[in-house]
Automatic annotation (TrEMBL):
Its EC number is 2.3.1.234. The keyword Transmembrane helix does not apply. It comes from Dyadobacter linearis. Binds 1 Fe(2+) ion per subunit. It catalyses: L-threonylcarbamoyladenylate + adenosine(37) in tRNA = N(6)-L-threonylcarbamoyladenosine(37) in tRNA + AMP + H(+). Required for the formation of a threonylcarbamoyl group on adenosine at position 37 (t(6)A37) in tRNAs that read codons beginning with adenine. Is involved in the transfer of the threonylcarbamoyl moiety of threonylcarbamoyl-AMP (TC-AMP) to the N6 group of A37, together with TsaE and TsaB. TsaD likely plays a direct catalytic role in this reaction. Substrate binds at residues 132-136, 165, 178, 182, 273. It is an enzyme of class 2 (transferase). Keywords: Acyltransferase, Cytoplasm, Iron, Metal-binding, Transferase, tRNA processing. InterPro entries: ATPase_NBD, Gcp-like_dom, KAE1/TsaD, Peptidase_M22_CS, TsaD. It is found in: Cytoplasm. This is tRNA N6-adenosine threonylcarbamoyltransferase. Coiled coil: none annotated.
Length: 332
């Protein structure tokens, strides 16, 4: 069983081939043009996807040593994501599946992030909790099976990935700023500066207030000392990262306590953050959790995670027809 998977939800054009549940290739083309604008420009992302998708798919098939006629299905990210970017991948997948006369499989991007844990060992046991953290989403998901998931907590406003990038922008760090916050934080003191933690009911998150608080903090410090940022960058990054990670783990700890689940995973682009990974492992040891952290290559957007999700849907004959359209917002 060979499935070609396509990911085009934001600014990564990716294609992967999976054979009987084993990833054979995973090709990603990154769009560097967005660094010029300090963030993803949707129209430019769509155009770049059009330029990249043919060579990326061709390389994925060649790397896997699978021909088009050897494919059993085509999978694609239906959403959530940028509508124009999704449209490129959706249209390509529909056309290719129609031309080859093979089934079409739609995949939820966020479910795929969770299922990235099943690409390689060790794999979490069901049920498990997955903290999915990215530039567009922050969720706590209770996973009962590969195709049965429930969101039990999510952000009410901004995602944690956006909070990382926006605070980096306030520090005049280039886009994407989240990884740079992580880099400088490794050299700083996380207790140097304190920021207020939001009070949200239940298992939901909020990150808009911490961004505002951080902005006012910087404005005050820079008025008193124009060189404040350059003189204290590692400590600033370590302190804001510590705060954001603390917000995430506080809710995750509460979710584990309320559900009684000790199988704990993280997924999404922010799961590549070294501060989050380290703090989660330490918390897991303290609370006797079994912690699962994906390989770096499967944290950010990639087609391998779309492929593994499609693998499970194929086993259930969960196909879609040619009338399917992309969805910028898409529930589980």
């Amino acid at each position: 069983m060979n499935i070609l998977a396509i990911e085009s939800s934001c600014d990564e054009t990716s294609a992967a081939v999976i054979t009987n549940g084993e990833i054979r290739s995973n090709v990603v083309a990154t769009q560097l043009i967005h660094t010029l604008y300090g963030g993803v420009v949707p129209e430019l992302a769509s155009r770049a996807h059009q330029q990249h998708i043919l060579p990326v798919v061709d390389k994925a098939l060649n790397d896997a040593k699978v021909t088009k006629k050897g494919l059993d299905a085509i999978a694609f990210t239906r959403g959530p994501g940028l509508l124009g970017a999704l449209l490129v991948g959706t249209s390509f997948a529909k056309s290719m599946a129609l031309g080859l006369g093979i089934p079409l499989i739609e995949v939820n991007h966020m479910q795929a992030h969770v299922l990235a844990h099943f690409i390689s060992d060790p794999k979490p046991a069901f049920p498990f909790l997955c903290l999915t953290v990215s530039g567009g989403h922050t969720q706590i998901v209770k996973v009962l099976s590969p195709l049965d998931m429930e969101i039990i907590g999510e952000t009410r406003d901004d995602a944690v990935g956006e909070a990382f990038d926006k605070t980096a922008k306030l520090l005049d760090l280039p886009y994407p700023g989240g990884p740079l916050i992580d880099k400088y934080a490794a050299e700083g003191n996380p207790g140097a500066y304190a920021f207020p933690l939001p009070e949200m009911p239940g298992l939901d998150f909020s990150f808009s207030g911490i961004k505002t608080s951080f902005m006012y903090f910087l404005q005050k410090q820079v008025r008193e000392n124009p060189a404040f940022v350059s003189e204290n960058l590692p400590d600033i990054c370590a302190s804001i990262q510590f705060t954001l990670v603390n917000i995430l783990l506080k809710k995750l700890k509460k979710a584990a306590r309320e559900t009684g689940i000790k199988e704990i995973a993280i997924a999404g682009g922010v799961s590549a953050n070294s501060g989050l990974r380290k703090s989660l492992l330490e918390l897991g040891q303290t609370l006797n959790w079994n912690v699962y952290i994906p390989a770096f290559e499967y944290c950010t957007d990639n087609a391998a995670m779309i492929a593994i999700a499609a693998h499970y849907k194929y086993l259930e004959s969960d196909f879609c027809d040619q009338t399917v359209s992309p969805l910028a917002r898409m529930d589980f």
